[in-house]
Design a protein that fits this description.
Elements: H1 3-23, E1 47-59, E2 64-75, E3 82-85, E4 90-95, E5 98-99, E6 101-105, E7 108-112, E8 122-131, E9 144-146, E10 151-153, E11 174-183, E12 187-189, E13 193-199, E14 204-215, E15 222-225, E16 228-233, E17 239-244, H2 252-259, H3 262-273, E18 281-285, E19 301-303, H4 314-322, E20 331-332, H5 339-355, H6 361-371, H7 394-411, H8 413-426, E21 431-432, H9 434-445, H10 450-457, H11 483-496
Parallel strand pairs: 1-11, 17-18, 18-19, 20-21
Antiparallel strand pairs: 1-2, 2-8, 3-7, 4-5, 4-8, 6-7, 9-10, 10-15, 11-14, 12-15, 13-14, 16-17
Helix pairs in contact: 3-4, 4-5, 5-6, 5-7, 6-7, 7-8, 7-10, 8-9
Length: about 500
Amino acid sequence: MSLRAKLTLGTAVAASLLLLAGTATAATPGAPGIGDPYYPNAGNGGYDVSHYDIRLNYQPAGDRLSGTTTILAKTTQDVTRFNLDFLLKVSSIRVNNKVAAFSQQAGELVVDPRGTLRKGADLTIVVTYSDVPSSHSVDGFTAWKRTADGALAINEPDVAPWWFPSNNHPRDKATYDVSLSVPDGLEVLSNGLFLGTTKLINGRTWWRWRSLKPQASYLAFVAIGQFDIRQSSAPGGRPVVNAYAPNLGADDAAAKASIERTSEVVEFLEESFGPYPFEAEGGVVVGPGLLGFALENQTRSTYDPAFFRRGANTYVVAHENGHQWFGDSVSVHNWRDIWLNEGFASYAEFLWSEHVGEGTAQENAQYTYDLYPADSPFWQVLPGDPGVDHQFDGAVYDRGALAVHALRVAVGDDTFFTILKKWTQTKRYGDATIEEFIALAEGVSGKQLDDLFTTWLFTKGKPAAAPGGSALATASVAEPKSFQKIRETHVLLDRSKH
């Protein structure tokens, strides 16, 4: 090559490099929110988490929680800094073994790695902290509940910021290792597989739990205190861990008569929803006056004993375990999509009612429809977009279940259950929107279903008739045997969540 050719080539290369430099996207801070219209500050942008390793010590006497959370993540863009959602006082942060600068304000932990993190970079983020979780509140609310002998971290849609830093939104799921050291004589319950305990020389014990499947941050829970823990195996060999507070009093037997049937309920729901998506099963009943609701913590739903005040209640077990498919495995893309959680979990109760012979789904649908007069505020809440203030309103549960039954009536049983199983399989361990569900239902059924979903999810006012039934029935319509339990369950569920 001649000198002139070399010079020409060099000029061209230099020009190309200048052009690329001029068009390259500049690194920016990760967004302080993931983009959920209901909760603009929930979650964060710029990275995706794959695993949380939460290793903490808890002192019940002063409600002091301290230790480290190690986060494994990957950047999704070039970032100069990023946020974590966290309320507790942080003492240090390392990013890829280098000390990072940080600041905290209004639940946002802003991390400055002191340099640009390139897109696709692996991150190891180690956050060290110590604080009193019960001293923190947001809008007058705290998700960390201090008890007589321990603590309880359970809530929806927010609980993680009170005990571990996270990308706090269902769009960013991860696996978990949770290890807690507590004084001897106390137990620690969390999600997934129980990995055992280790006695320490200072009168403390480590408790270890592992979640092997992707899990949303609000579904990660911890319960610390004294519990009667029962371990067994489901028919297929899957481990089952159930636990009961010691002070359930007259509700103790009814609680155990309900929760100990969890594997039976799961086995039944598999017939409708497809294979159970997780590595473990179980339930926890906490002490009176602590919770006020039940929550579908992944693999280990947690219940207030009030659900069992009038005897055994397997309907709430069906509801919370229905969530293991609808809400836990397939999570909301935005919190506006909450019908995908609550409508189907409520319909799991209708299915269980049919199974145990206490009322068909059609009878329960008709009775639900008749229960609310046309001028009731119930019919003014839209399950397909209820708004933040009505996210857990009774209509999301009850009218949500009617929408599911309307689909069943419209497409027939065979197609209906095919839709449910295809949905839980294709969206497994991910997140989804209501519009995606409608598209799948139309694709499987070959029917145009816009009118159906518009009527039941997105139109205010009472529809002309119950799905598959009639307009307002006469007073002679009998209440299904299951209905009182279902109503008691829903009143507790929808009145107390944050």
